[in-house]
Amino acid sequence: MNTNKQFTDRFDWVLGFLLLLFLIISLMAISSAQTTGQYGINFIPRQLFWYIIGMIIIAMTMFLEPEQYKRMAWIIYGIGLVPLIVLAILPGSLEVVAERNGAQSWFHLPFGIGSIQPAEFMKTFYILAVARVIVKHHENYPLKTTKSDFLLLVKIGALFIVPFLLIMTQPDLGTGLVFIAITVALIVVAGITWKIILPILGAGAGLGGGLIWMALYMQDFFINTLGVSPYQRARIYSWLDPYSYASNEGLHLISSLNAIGSGEIFGKGYQGREVYVPENHTDFIFAVIGEEFGFVGASLVIVLYFVLIYHLTKLTLQLKDPFSTYVAAGIIAMITFHVFENIGMTIQLLPITGIPLPFISYGGSSLMGNMLALGLIFSMKFHHKTYMFGNNEDD
Predict the structure, then answer these.
(1) What is the pTM of this model?
(2) What does the domain layout of the chain look like in residue ranges?
(3) Residue 143 in this model has a pLDDT that exceeds 80
(4) Helix axes 43-62, 13-33, angle to 10 degrees
């Protein structure tokens, strides 16, 4: 079999086609979002540039085998922690540090390129490290017991707590929630007994519910004792009662609800928008889609995400390598949570956390981080096809 035919057989054309569809939707939605004139910048060339960089990242990532990523997982994890530590110790007054909405989460890039958010890449690095830990643990403890499961949970917790605390000190609640979603998913697929998982999930749900209850009925304790920042506090109250904060923090949500609602069934047509939505090219891009293409167009976008997640899940079930399976599961959890949280916050189902819509929202860090994750998926498919019917590397 020649090399070209091997590549054709091993490349994931379905995933590539889905990315092409997301590119088209992204450019159309961003182009329309710009008509409000909120910024005097044309974001289309920039988004196209980040997509090209993302494709290069996929190509570079794809040609390394999953086994190589397994061997390098600890090194990659450590490299990912370095910029997070630097952000935590550098004063925000330095020009190299970019601060937005009270969060010190970005580095300025030279030559006017923009900024980069290290946490977006750390998500994938973290998944690689946890997948390696799970695989090694199962190799060392082939007989599963409650004690061994608890030990695995401690190992995962140790990996989780460092990047999570660094990200929360920025502070970046949205990205912190993504890390929690990834961790929960990997704990479940790792096969840890439900005797351990259920109490933890119950405690987490109780904590979350308790915080919301305190925000509503124990405001002095919530604000003063827990030390919740004014920005985070405003996010919570504007989610629960946006119309009481219509002139400030609630503006985003009210504008988003008005835009999506005004689209009705079929929308107002491409670039037929009338409702002004702040940050509509980034976090609130779904409001643009809902207003212009209505319930039908918004539903088609959601269906496209379901197709993506279904395809990734189907591929994961075909993988024979445990490490690849855990990595793919973590990536699926990451993308799924991003989609659910972003769309949920635009319709008041969930609080606003600043999480972008994967592959559609404008943003270089988010797009490149997601492309890096999909590059690992491409790698798994590419090399899995090579060895599917045998162990001969020359097949």
Answers:
(1) 0.90
(2) 3-387
(3) yes
(4) 160
